[in-house]
Structure formats: structure tokens, C-alpha cells
# Entry
Amino acid sequence: MHKSDPPSTAPALKLAGALQLLRQSGRDVPEPAGIDRVAWLQAVIDGLCELSSRDPLTGVWNRRQFDVALTSEIDRVARAGEPALVLMIDIDHFKSVNDTHGHAAGDVVLKEVAQALRECIRPMDTLARVGGEEFAMILPNCPPSFGHAVAERVRAKVQRRWVEVAPGETISVTVSIGGAFAPQWVRSSAPLWVERADQQLYLAKQSGRNRACLEKPMVSLVSAEEKGLLFGTSQYQDLQDLE
Amino acid sequence: MSSSDKPESPGAVPPAKRARIIALTSGKGGVGKTFMSANLAAALARRNLRVLVLDADLGLANLDVVLNLHPKITLHDVFTGKNHLEDAILPAPGGFSVLLAGSGLVEYSRLTPQVREQLVGIIDTVAPRFDIILLDTGAGISDVVLYSVSLADEVLIVATPEPTSMTDAYATIKVLATHQQRRAIGIVVNQVSRVGEGRAIRGQLQLVVDKFVTPMLPADETAPKLELIGEVPLDGAVREAVQKRQLLLEVLPGAPAARAIEIVATRLAP
# Structure
């Protein structure tokens, strides 16, 4: 009997393929012996979920998980009104890295950029690889006034990192970043949020790459000063006095 | 083959005249925006204009209630592909047409690329057939509201003298000026207690816009200008008409509020 077969009392579930996937991706599959059957199956399912949410090359979340996280974040922003930023991060001239140094070097670059990005995020942030050379970050509770500093830090972090594409051969790569804040207190949808960030990414690419462009956050809040002027001036007071 | 065989073919016929699209929005709910849309549409229709009111308050539509209509086919059915757009355009009591959102559109209260395409498609289809399309948008500054407003040629903000309404109207103006580059915004002040109150409120709003919004804009751009399109007095007749679920202009055309709405219509379509 294979050591990871399910307990013998179970109806035959065809798990060999799933277990092989998990093992091959380096994930621990608990031994079925000595563990409750439900718990064992749960562990297998959890492993598969994790596997289907990760980008195999870089280990960051994949597009599927990014979409899930984005949808729940945009709902949270609509309900709680906390600001949240999404950054679309695209490696500059990635094709020429592949063309010059080969695809293996391209993979190394992707891994190193992913690592640099991982070093920029907080535990609650979501980092995902959403396309060939494109990454995305969801930053919950990121005040609009911090947006540029955050994006700039990410950009600089990648630029500072030397990537060894072949023994003794190091290059540095840059990224262009587009960012947009989720509309606060407003029910919106994930595709539009990403679309707005993508427009900024396009701007960053157009204006020379290796830079971050952020959409100006929408200012719908009315400050005390504005209210003061709206209601505090003589004209409005005269209006009130007449009543 | 003559071009008249293919009326839709581009280039073969001169471009159709397109309706003026006017969005009514308010920031705050409960200021009489839908009441205004319906009665303004009736007033414009009396001026021999072909008017359509599009209920763009997709999540929480009320136009059917105001007009006492019980539509069998709504925008919802058009969005889902169940019915043709043509079948959803209904005649309303005041001599204008309506496209009602209907209930069950909660899923459209958030803007998605699909909802956006649907809205643009619908407006493009109906625009050549009308002189004026009034977009009755939802309250608040949601992205559905902002998107509907962005489709309009002109925007009218309905406000009341209530401080909350003025604050929300101001917030809406600020967003429209900074994010949609609106430089001309019409104001209709509803429920005024005395003549001139509308003008005073427009003045107050303009003052705050000049001080706080204009400096947020690029220096070479023109400053946003608010225009008072009209003021509508607080009038018991309005309540009476709303409770009867009839148009004020139909049941009590001589009421001060009805006359004021006629004036708004005259300003919009001289």
C-alpha cells in the first residue's frame, strides 16, 4: 500500500493525481494513518486550493487569487470607507531580457522581481503575478497621501536589486507602476478598479518607464473649512436671520 | 440600391441629430430629484420636444412610483437580453417617454464594464429619436452615478436649502469639476421658502467652489461656473401630487411649484 493512500475504509476516491501534484510542488501531504479521514481530506483540499492560487514560478499569488482578493477588498472599502490602493507593476523591456539572455534568465528576473516586491509589502497586502511580466499589489488601508511614496519605494526597491542572469553576469531591471485608489464608500467593481490602475500604468510606460503614476484620488469629502465657508459667511447668515 | 434601403448604414445617410442629454443628480437623496425629472420632462414635452427620461438610478429606482406606472418590461429585461429596448420605452402621462430601471437591478448598483456598455449602447440607440434625454441618476456619488453623469452633455444638480443637501451638492460639484472636467454646472434649488433663496445658495456654492475647488485644477483651466437654472418653492401642491402619484403639472398646473418648473424648462430649452 502506498504510504499516502486514503484510509482503507474509504470509498475509492481517485486522489493519486492530486497527491502527486501536491508532492511535486513541494507541499507537505499529511500521512493518512493516524489522522481523522475528514481532517486528512481537508488538508488535501487546502493544499490544492493553495496550489491553484499560487504562481508556480515566483510563488506569489496568481491572477485567480488576485481577483478574489480584489473583489473582497473593493467591497470592504465600500462598506468601511477605508482607502485601498491597487498597483499594477510591469517589468520594463522584459522582452529584451529574454531575447538577450534567454528565457531561463527571464525566469530568474521574474523570481527576483517577485522577491523584491515581497520585501515591500505588509502582511495584509496581496502580491500577485497577473500576467507574463506583470505583477499587482493590493494595499488595504493605504491613505491617499502615502500612495506616491509607497509606489516609489516599490519602484526603487526593484531598481536597486541586481539580478544574476548567468554566473558572473548581473543586470538590473526596472518596473513601471500604475496605481489607483478604490472609490471610498462607493460600490464599485474590481474590473474598473484595475482598469483605472492600468490607465496609469500606460501613462507610466508612455512617459519613459521606470516610474510610478497614480490616479488622483477622488476628493468627495467636504472639510470643516469648506463647510465653514458654505454656511458661515454673512450671505448665508442673512438668509438664516430672515427665517 | 438606394441609401434609403439601408437607413442604418453609416456614411450613406447624414448623421442623425442626437438628443441633448441632461443628467439630474443631487448628492443627497430625498431632495425631489425624481419628482423634478418627471415634471421637467412634462414641461419640456409641452414645448413640443420629444423627451425621454431614463431611470439611471439602477439600484433603487423610483420613477415608476412617481409616475404610477407598472411596467411589464424594464431596463432589467433589456440588460439580461430578455426583451428588446424598443419594448421597454413606455409612454408616460405627461406626454414624454420613459425607460424604467425596474426593481431587481440591485446587481447593477455597482458599475461593471457590462453595465457601462449597456448604458452607452442604450443611450446611443435612443439618442437620435429624441430631442432631450433626462438621466435621472441615483443619489450619492457612486460610480454608477458618476458614469451616467459622464455620458451627459449637461448636468443639473438638484439641491434644497437644507445644509446636508447643500454639502452633498457641493461634494458632487467638486468631484464633477476635478474628475470630469465639468466647467459649467446647472443648479436647481428645490423647496425654497422665499424668492431669491436659490440665487443665494448658488452664490454660496460658487464662493466655496472658487476658494477650494478652482485651486485644485490646473492653473490654465477655466474655473467651474455654477448657473442657477431655477428655484422651485416649497409648495403643498407637490405633496398632494406625489401622494396621488400624478404629475404636478397635470393635476395642479397652476401651483407655484408647477409654474417654477415651467420656468426651468424655458431656461433649458428657450
